[in-house]
Recover the amino acids of this structure.
């Protein structure tokens, strides 16, 4: 019955034994530690990967902005130099006219001609001067009426309210410069002789105070602008070649948009026409231009859906601007490629954690078995003690240990031995006591029989028979 109870208890507590609990505790600690380490490492690796990609993109942005700014500055310097040369030329060409007018005015003062004749001759001189190819001089009076102009449709008309295509009041502004500064320059657009469309022009004006005339000339600078545009196109082409050599990731790219979202510069080996031909491309381009910072030193990071590789996916993008050109510079990398190093690191960390977990579990199980086995031995010894089958030698291995478990085993071994010996002596005493008790009981029963009436009657009969035998003899 006791054996059945012990077996049932052992089976019922197999999974709640100390060794199982200790093994489970070690497993839980290692699993939690491994998960925490793996998750932290994955997040750290992903953050580091994103930071590295963002830094690389930002560096590329800043380098490219500096490159474009330098190229634009070179173009502007070349244009400014050409314009300065052109303006100096205008001033030099105007000087002989002033000299001629002074001579006419001197002749009038000397009485050789009338002032009206001198002015008429002066206006003829102004209208007849030509330089370069089709450049000319003109003159207006103080009210803005053309008094000398080679174009008949302007001659004799008041042009104070006339504007160029850019909204510049050409005659009014030239008069203001002449009246306020004596001479100066004005940038405007004007229609060339025998042409219909206006071209960029720089005008030089001076005030001839003796007759209160505003004398001016201008030179078309569309050739200078064309040269600047040519240099800018060469810069764009060079940028496209440079963009194709910049290596963010396998599919990373740089491109430039204008203020309307049109692609101005793209890598020479990539086709980004989808930004202008698809709905997602137009939406993306508009969004990027809208997000561009106003300061070229600033950058904006954003994540947008794009289909540059033929598949719509999230792209990590860095946006900056070039306000002088009205350009928006964008660098873009697929988010999956940004995350790839972090994910790879996370997988490696997970595998490493699994390996450490397995090794830790193995070591933990072996350690728990070594720790718990003496306890199990003492448990069996306690059960044997309960079942009167205790043998002190079963604790010899545990008692040989030099730790607390060994001390406990030795104490239990001594206690068990003493209990067994005490029970043996107690059984002997009980046996002896039982024998004594049994003999006393027999004596008492015999005395009771001897004193009974039946026994007395037999005794009397025995004595009577004995007397009778003695008398007969």
């Amino acid at each position: 019955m006791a054996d059945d109870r012990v077996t049932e208890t052992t089976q019922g507590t197999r999974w709640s034994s100390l060794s199982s609990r200790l093994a489970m505790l070690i497993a839980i600690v290692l699993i939690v530690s491994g998960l925490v380490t793996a998750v932290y490492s994955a997040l750290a690796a992903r953050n580091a990967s994103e930071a590295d990609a963002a830094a690389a993109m930002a560096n590329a942005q800043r380098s490219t902005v500096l490159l474009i700014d330098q190229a634009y500055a070179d173009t502007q310097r070349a244009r400014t130099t050409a314009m300065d040369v052109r303006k100096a030329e205008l001033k030099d060409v105007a000087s002989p006219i002033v000299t001629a007018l002074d001579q006419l005015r001197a002749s009038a003062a000397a009485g050789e001609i009338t002032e009206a004749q001198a002015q008429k001759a002066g206006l003829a001189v102004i209208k007849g001067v030509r330089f370069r190819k089709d450049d000319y001089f003109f003159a207006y009076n103080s009210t803005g009426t053309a008094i000398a102009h080679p174009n008949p449709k302007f001659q004799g008309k008041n042009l104070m309210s006339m504007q160029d295509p850019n909204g510049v009041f050409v005659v009014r502004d030239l008069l203001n410069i002449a009246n306020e500064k004596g001479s100066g320059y004005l940038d405007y657009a004007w229609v060339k002789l025998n042409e219909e469309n206006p071209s960029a022009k720089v005008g030089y004006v001076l005030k001839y105070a003796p007759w209160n005339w505003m004398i001016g000339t201008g030179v078309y600078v569309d050739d200078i602008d064309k040269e600047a545009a040519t240099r800018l196109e060469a810069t764009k082409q060079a940028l496209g070649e440079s963009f194709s050599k910049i290596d963010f990731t396998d599919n990373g790219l740089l491109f430039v948009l204008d203020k309307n979202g049109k692609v101005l510069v793209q890598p020479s080996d990539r086709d980004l026409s989808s930004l202008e031909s698809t709905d997602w491309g137009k939406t993306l381009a508009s969004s990027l231009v809208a997000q561009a910072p106003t300061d070229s030193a600033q950058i904006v990071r954003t994540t947008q859906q794009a289909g540059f590789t033929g598949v719509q996916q999230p792209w990590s993008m860095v946006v900056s601007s070039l306000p002088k050109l009205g350009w928006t510079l964008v660098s873009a990398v697929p988010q999956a490629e940004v995350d790839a190093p972090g994910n790879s690191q996370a997988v490696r960390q997970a595998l490493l954690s699994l390996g450490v977990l397995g090794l830790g579990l193995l070591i933990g199980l072996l350690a728990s078995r070594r720790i718990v086995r003496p306890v199990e031995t003492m448990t069996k010894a306690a059960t044997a003690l309960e079942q009167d089958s205790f043998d002190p030698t079963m604790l010899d291995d545990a008692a040989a240990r030099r730790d607390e478990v060994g001390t406990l085993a030795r104490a239990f071994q001594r206690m068990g031995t003493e209990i067994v010996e005490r029970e043996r002596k107690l059984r002997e005493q009980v046996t002896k006591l039982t024998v004594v008790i049994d003999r006393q009981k027999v004596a008492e029963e015999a005395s009771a029989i001897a004193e009974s009436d039946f026994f007395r009657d037999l005794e009397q009969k025995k004595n009577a028979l004995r007397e009778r035998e003695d008398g007969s003899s």
